[in-house]
Amino acid sequence: MPLYFGYGVDAGYLLVALAALVLGMAAQGYIKSTYRKWSRVDAGIVGTGADVARRMLAEGGASGVGITRVAGSLTDHYDPRDNRLHLSDDNYRGASVASVAVACHEAGHAIQAARGFFPYRVRTMLVPVVNIAEGSWMLVLLAGVMLSIGGLVQLAIVLFAVAVLFQLVTLPVEIDASRRAVAFLSSRGSGLDERGARAVLTAAALTYVAAALTSIMQLVYLLGRYGGRGDD
């Protein structure tokens, strides 16, 4: 979101926003093309994505987790609030390498929750704080700059730093869930399943890496422009 302070668009912020746009589009394009490629390859495991995920949950000590369908494409996620995997229709009913890889990745998150995986617990604890920080930091920054209140500017940077911390904590959570999925598929399927799952899940992880990198760039920009100052 470009910043307007009465003097036109901030050029430095536009550069950061452009970099974020390019990285985000590249990451999204890569995961879509990789997913499309491996969605055409049948997995060497009996069952659909939902079936395979259920077997992984049972073996991982999370047999009480439910599985349901959710609208959209690549909208798959595990929701600890209802203790369910929400799989997009293609991955719920599909039996491709891509479908079982994504489904098992989400099962990996459920197993993390069941086993108390420490980074997952930290990420979960940060969620309420991050929801507040992400929804308020920009408004606080604008108010601080326009009113020349240094304390508000510093508060905005702290709030944004919390959001960046959340993204950094998310990385090991996502990587571990993918590791669990690949390990399960490599022990139950074929070498092709392992290779395809690794490719799909690596592409998915790059979207989180890209988001973290752009947020770090934005934080560095904010620190350089407003750190130690409340006015401009």
Automatic annotation (TrEMBL):
<feature type="transmembrane region" description="Helical">
    <location>
        <begin position="12"/>
        <end position="31"/>
    </location>
</feature>
<feature type="transmembrane region" description="Helical">
    <location>
        <begin position="196"/>
        <end position="223"/>
    </location>
</feature>
<keyword id="KW-0472">Membrane</keyword>
<keyword id="KW-1133">Transmembrane helix</keyword>
<dbReference type="Pfam" id="PF04298">
    <property type="entry name" value="Zn_peptidase_2"/>
</dbReference>
<dbReference type="InterPro" id="IPR007395">
    <property type="entry name" value="Zn_peptidase_2"/>
</dbReference>
<protein>
    <submittedName>
        <fullName>Zinc metallopeptidase</fullName>
    </submittedName>
</protein>
<feature type="transmembrane region" description="Helical">
    <location>
        <begin position="155"/>
        <end position="175"/>
    </location>
</feature>
<feature type="transmembrane region" description="Helical">
    <location>
        <begin position="125"/>
        <end position="149"/>
    </location>
</feature>
<keyword id="KW-0812">Transmembrane</keyword>
